[in-house]
Amino acid sequence: EPSSRRRCKLSMTEHNERLLLEMEMNPALLQGSHREQWEAISDLDSFFKRVYNYFDERGLRCILAGRLISLGMLAFTIALSAYLAEAVNWDGLVNECVDESTCAGVKLLRDDSFRSPSPFLVLFLLVFSVYWLWMLLHFFWDLRALLEIRSFYRHKLNIDDSELLVVSWDTVVQRVVELQATARLCIVKDQLTAHDIANRILRKENFMVALVNQKLLPIEPLPGLRLSVMTKTLEWALEVCLLDAMFDGSGFRIRPSFTQDVRGLQRRLFACGALTLLLSPFIAAFMLLFFFLKHAEEFHRRPAASAFSRDYSLHARWCMREFNELPHLFEARVLASAADASAYVRQFPTPLLTLVARFVTFIVGSLAAVLIGLSLINESVLVFYRISPDA
């Protein structure tokens, strides 16, 4: 009889553990009691990330508008690149348009546009068209999750999208913590804290902060050369090869074989490097055009505050980043320190670079002064005069 009781207790324990696991993995099975409504979530890391991103992007309308505008900007840049490279009559505009009468007969677009495009242009359009379609599919794929997060904010946290413009993240966290007491989002522990939520949101970012602080990433091209080559492409490669491969299917447990799988890491890094090398010509051409289009008006209106102004490098940002520091708090801290950091850097001038810059400024300024003088004497010289090849 004692043995039968022990077997009965063991079977009940196994049944409870199995039921608990089913409750965690399938929220539809969770039934509420009179005092608590069980709504456990299987992947809290992903859920809290979506909650934070919804707050950081200020609601559903702002998120949808931002992503649609990004799709429109990308489509416009791709189309403009194709027309500038293949359709515009550059030969006529540069060589035949000499005066008003000749310019009137020059067509802006070529008659044989896109009849025999270059292989580079074909591959360029193919690569970025596929990327645009992937972004479009990702946009529709995220709609359901965005609607669920909006319902969570509206019905569980009692925060409407219009309130997200003035509500702080601390208020959102406080309401999530209060919600844990009545609707069990996490069944592993009874209480949630702000530290728990931040740790789940920034689990992978904390590993990146630790890797940078411990100087475990090979981001210097040559030993002893104080030059960081950490770019967005390298950051993406490290995220894919290290952080994404580090965790198992649950998203928060490190795979036991990760630290021993050296060959696997080598294969992932080699694949990312080969892919980046193959796509680098197309990415460089696209980014050059996009950079010019994005900052052209800024160059004209505010040259001193343009994209060439001094800013923190990506490596410096990871060095400054604190553990569990959310992006909006980090950006606010970086923005507050920019003026003082620039003043500090100006205390250590580089005489050689200053001399070279002074020489370049003198040459460019002298040519500009000559052109301004010619325009004051006879503006037709600048409008219609062309330097002939025999000159």
Structure description:
The N and C termini lie far apart (113 Å). It contains 16 helices and 2 strands. Residues 2-10 and 15-38 have low confidence and may be disordered. It has 391 residues and is mainly α. The longest helix has 40 residues, at 262-301. The radius of gyration is 29 Å and the shape is globular. Helices cover 66% and strands 1% of the residues. Helix 2 (44-56) crosses helix 9 (194-201) and helix 11 (232-246) packs antiparallel against helix 12. The relative contact order is 0.07. It has helices spanning 2-25, 44-56, 60-87, 90-96, 100-104, 119-141, 143-156, 169-182, 194-201, 203-213, 232-246, 262-301, 314-320, 327-345, 351-377, 380-384, and strands at residues 37-38, 183-184.
Give the topology, please.
Layout: H1 2-25, E1 37-38, H2 44-56, H3 60-87, H4 90-96, H5 100-104, H6 119-141, H7 143-156, H8 169-182, E2 183-184, H9 194-201, H10 203-213, H11 232-246, H12 262-301, H13 314-320, H14 327-345, H15 351-377, H16 380-384
Helix pairs in contact: 2-9, 3-6, 11-12
Helix content: 55-70%
Please outline the major beta sheet: 2 strands, parallel
Judged by helices, strands and strand pairing, the structural class is mainly alpha
- Measure the end-to-end span: 113 Å
Low-confidence stretches: 2-10, 15-38
Question: What overall form do the CA principal axes indicate?
Answer: globular
SSE arrangement, N to C: HEHHHHHHHEHHHHHHHH
Radius of gyration: 29 Å
Mean pLDDT: 79
Major sheet strand order: 1-2
**Total number of helices:** 16
State the total count of DSSP E strands.
Answer: 2
Range of strand content: under 5%
